Amino acid sequence: MRFCRASFLILCCLAFFASSHAAAGQDKVATTTVCDVVKEPPVFDNKLVRLTATLSGNFEISSIHDTAHKDCGSMWFTYPGSGPSAYVSFSTGEPAKPRPSVQLIKDKKFNEFQKYVDAKMYARQRDSLCIDCPRYEVTAVMIGLVEFAGPGHGFGHMNSFPVQFVLRSIEKTSVKDLAPNYAAADYSTTLICFPMGYVSGTLVGPDDRLISDGDVNIYSVSDPATHIDEDSSTTDEKGRFKFAVPPGSYIIGFNTFWPPSAKAPYPPTYYPSTKERTTAKVVNVGDKQHVKNLVLKLPQPLTARIIPVKVLWPDGRPVPDANVWISQRVYQDFAIGRTMPDFST
Q1: Closest to 218 measured CA to CA, from 291, 169, 160
Q2: Are strands 62-66 and 74-78 parallel, antiparallel or unpaired?
Q3: CA within 20 to 30 Å of 175's CA: 102, 134, 245, 289, which one?
Q4: Which domain holds residue 221?
């Protein structure tokens, strides 16, 4: 019994030593540069590195480049809560191999970094379009995990980045104020408050069941049309939606931007419950007015249909892994499919 107990204690100690050694190895950080990583990404794949980088990109791109040598290449940059407002990435183009998990450290240094990243310039005119107006150029000493996609794969927008940097922590942040680059007559460093009204309500099914996670859109019917910053609202668990809009006249719709899907198998429907845009009820909103308790009721769901499609090359050979688009004749919305290994879709 004493021998067994001693053996058990020795095994536990060995296991603890092995796990501690592995954790220490995983936490080992190599100091390098963006240029070195981009030049030889397989060398740094799945490794933690420390580097100095400057954020770059726009509403579709989130990337970092070398501060001293901007032209040597860039990496897709990501961390929880980050990312451009609109980008397209196909899951079939992303690498499938498992990756080490990265826990983002949200300390004071990270909060300072995020503050500068979020800072932006504000248009002085409501209808001025400014999709990407950063206040600062942000550079930081950061630690994160390098991920190499490998041949035929990629990260980020259109899967065009072979290397991705997953942020773990920020050590130091420096910025360049870009405000002097903007016309002071058109842009401000502080938020401009414009006249604003509010519209809210609930989305329900044909049986009056509350519809959660549904995309509701609002459209201006004023002449000329009123500019809307956020024209889409996703319903919460109780089917509620809400819009903040300038004073004006509006109509509200569901499935009026994206086509019906398995998740939302309903025809385009406008408030209060009509399929035609011309018969939608107009909602008038004034400054500081809240039009609430609207109920947008959906009709019976559509019947799903399977449309088999085969994609062929000019010589008649089937095309594998091809994108197939289908569009409605009336609304010109679309859905995407892909051909299967047997060349069907």
Answers
A1: 291
A2: antiparallel
A3: 102
A4: 197-297
**Alpha-helix residue ranges (DSSP H) falling in the chain:** 2-26, 34-39, 41-44, 108-118
Note the pLDDT tens digit of each residue in 182-217.
999 999 999 888 999 999 999 999 999 999 999 999
DSSP one-letter string for 285-341: E-TT-EEEEEEEE--PPPPP-----B-B-TTS-B-SS-EEEEE-TTT--EEEEE--T
The dihedral built from the CA positions of residue 4, 6, 10 and 13, taken in this order, carries a sign that is: positive
Domain co-membership, 50 together with 173: yes
- Given 181, 211, 233, the domain boundary residue is 181
18 belongs to a structural domain: no
pTM for the model stands at 0.62
Partnered with residue 284 across adjacent β-strands are 249
Distance, CA of 279 to CA of 224 (rounded, Å): 20
What confidence tens digit (pLDDT) does each residue in 99-130 have?
A: 888 999 999 999 999 999 999 999 998 878 77
